[in-house]
Specification:
Helix content of chain A is about 25%, strand content about 25%. Chain A contains ten helices and 15 strands. Chain A has helices at about 50-55, 120-125, 130-140, 160-170, 180-190, 205-210, 225-230, 265-270, 285-300, 315-325; strands at about 5-10, 25-30, 35-45, 75-80, 90-95, 100-105, 110, 150-155, 175-180, 195-200, 215-220, 235-245, 275, 305-310, 330-335. In chain A, helix 3 packs across helix 4 and helix 3 crosses helix 9. The two termini of chain A are about 15 Å apart. The interface between A and B is medium-sized, with 35 and 35 residues.
Chain lengths: ~350, ~350
Amino acid sequence: MTPMNRQVRLAARPTGLPKPEDWEHTTEPVPDPGEGEVLVRMELLSLDPAMRGWMNEGRSYVPPVQLGEVMRAEGIGRVVRSNHPNVAEGQPVRAVSGVQEYVTASGDRVEPVDESVAPLTSQLGAIGTAGLTAYFGLLDVGAAKEDDTVVVSGAAGAVGSVAGQIARIKGCRVVGIAGGEEKCRWLTDDLGFDVAVDYRAGALQGALRDATPDRIDVFFDNVGGEILEAGLGRLGRGARVVICGAISQYNAEGGIEDVHGPRNYLSLLVNRARMEGFVVFDFRRRYAEAARELAGWLHSGALVAREHVVDGTVDDFPDVLLKLFRGENTGKLLLRLAAS
Amino acid sequence: MTPMNRQVRLAARPTGLPKPEDWEHTTEPVPDPGEGEVLVRMELLSLDPAMRGWMNEGRSYVPPVQLGEVMRAEGIGRVVRSNHPNVAEGQPVRAVSGVQEYVTASGDRVEPVDESVAPLTSQLGAIGTAGLTAYFGLLDVGAAKEDDTVVVSGAAGAVGSVAGQIARIKGCRVVGIAGGEEKCRWLTDDLGFDVAVDYRAGALQGALRDATPDRIDVFFDNVGGEILEAGLGRLGRGARVVICGAISQYNAEGGIEDVHGPRNYLSLLVNRARMEGFVVFDFRRRYAEAARELAGWLHSGALVAREHVVDGTVDDFPDVLLKLFRGENTGKLLLRLAAS
């Protein structure tokens, strides 16, 4: 009996927050893997703010997901059939599978994952792509060094929580910006941030000023909008603003016209500062080295990994994705697919 | 008979464009120079877009001009009395004199100028602070190199016109953005820009796209607002955006709240690009070296210097300053003080 593959496809380009009608749920037979291919049954799907950008038309760092195409997603699954000599059946692998239960791919395009290193959930989070993004963004793009004041926005998210912890490990003073008392408490009590600023409490500028008496050396921004402006307003001489994302702006109803551009960007001039964007893929050649260091910190207890795992099916993907934009996740948001 | 000194002082912090009532015109006796001091009669005053920023309250790269204080300005004058052993009477000197006819200053704080190098007007322009700003902004901050596509906004201004010419000298493809056909013709016909884009002609984005088939490696921005956005929209991989100024935004009626922040700043992420501000003073130790190189280009004819000289008195300063914000100057705007 051929198993059936449930999939979530992009049906329309959303305006603002993705709505149910922007998705199409399909079922098709699982194709047999060809020569050199493997068939993987997905167990965990990663949900990332960047996904919202992939749904838009236009030039970006990856091609847009096409209408009718299975939504792009990274995940970890298990090989159920292998026609590739180096990939065993039963082997857990990381793959850019898309939002579907099964994926058939070249055995060279899936990456074996070692379950003994850390739970698979963390391998999609703190020591996976999110952790690597934090690592290269903070240390390479942001050039954070000992005694720097590092401010991270979206600090309770998958990338921000790791960026702040790496900064702490490197001897920086670390300030996190997050939404809500609970997230803020987690940052200071469990992750060792020096200060957490709750942007929902209002008076962000004043709170950030109080939290950064020596101003900011590195602002690691995942949020954009008024939070980016608050950061720019506290830059110190020679500061680095790392543009990792802008979750507050991805769903602007009017698209780019409605994005809140940083009105105080001339702070870059006053402070001889730079604002720089990056894409983690560019650091691919150094992934292994960085992942080793992240895993070492995880094992020593220096790095706390937290995943927000939602159990469900691929059909739940559209709803779960919205949690990111409502600030409902703490740590890495994952969808764990029920065994069929 | 003690000569009298006519002065222009800041009377109020302007909202939007400076108005006549934001200035106070005063006359006081010229003080005698003390031990080690010189008395200088100013002949040329430099008018700079940055002056608008100096009139605002708040933290910047220099302290704000205080209310009641003589407006800050750089100029060239001639020593009329000297109590300093190394400064001869009759010597032309550069000084941050302020907007006044006479200044008394320590002989160590004025910089002798060699009239044989170039006309004094050019020494306040293409081979003065404006030229140095272009030089370090383009080559150090922007890291422009041969075959780069360099786009300069405010290209017919004092800094922009030199930045574009240096880019051409260094073997870059150079595109200038300026307002009006006449300025654009000057850029291509006299200064050797490859293309000039007239932002007043409308359809800026399309025109800039046509002018930059290989996208932009260095965007040297003097203007801000929609012109900065047009530049960000055409960045290439690894581009550098040099924030030199934002003349379109300095007079925003509502202050910072009304500044047009770049809505498409995420182009920095997509293109792994950086946007960096600078202040020319930080390069002070390399001024002599750069000024020599600029003077060499001027003498060889590689660099064309143009000054827009208005003859008048210090009382004309407030009116002449507005020319900058109305785009009425081509090249370096100077006020030449009539001999009294």
